[in-house]
Amino acid sequence: MSLEHYFTQLANHNLKKTPKRVEILRVMNSKNTYSSPQELWVLLKQKFQKVGLPTVYRILQQFQEIGIAASIQKGDNQLYYFLCSIKHSHHHFICRKCKKVSCIEYCDFEQIKKSVEEQLQSKAETHFLQIEGLCKDCLES
Fold first, then answer.
1. Quick one: DSSP state of residue 24?
2. Which residues contact 37 (CB under 8 A, 6 or more apart)?
3. Per-residue DSSP letters for 65-127?
4. For 19-48, what is the mean pLDDT?
């Protein structure tokens, strides 16, 4: 996706196109992998004299709230972020080797909700599914 798309989303949500937001978007858009807030902070410190880790977390949270980023949780219980602008329900495949994140245009949550209601007499309200493995390129290498 082009950076202009993300800039438009910032404007649509009354968020200014600040240099730090732009740089985070540029870095995240240049790769198709997830990043930790700490990794992004280290990169930002090379360009900006004054940038704190809380600023990076705040920007990533804003990106998530306006729907241009998503997060995943790894085994270290750390949140990692990647750009994702798909609005409808879908899931992600994460390559364990190269960290590439791919969207899976499929979600069967409605069927799962129905099963929860029928089998447990309960109400499922939300879900989170992330699928991990090796991508095609890593399988071939």
1. H
2. 53, 56, 57, 60, 79, 81
3. HTTSEEEEE-TTS-EEEEE----SS-EEEEETTT-BEEEE----HHHHHHHHHHHHS------
4. 94
Tell me the pairing of strands 101-104 and 69-73.
unpaired
> Whole-angstrom Cα distance, residue 79 to residue 31?
17
* Token pair for 133: 């493995």
Short-list 48, 129, 69, CA closest to 94: 129
pTM (global) more than 0.70? yes
CA distance 103 to 58: 24
pLDDT of residue 128: 78
Distances (CA, A) of 24 to 71, 72, 115: 15, 17, 41
> Which pLDDT score, from 0 to 100, does residue 138 have?
95
Name the strand (E) or helix (H) holding 3. helix 3-12
The two structure tokens encoding residue 107? 């979600």
The answer to whether 9 touches 66, Cβ cutoff 8 Å, is: yes
Q: Centre a 10 Å sphere on the Cβ of residue 19 and count the other Cβ atoms it contains.
A: 12
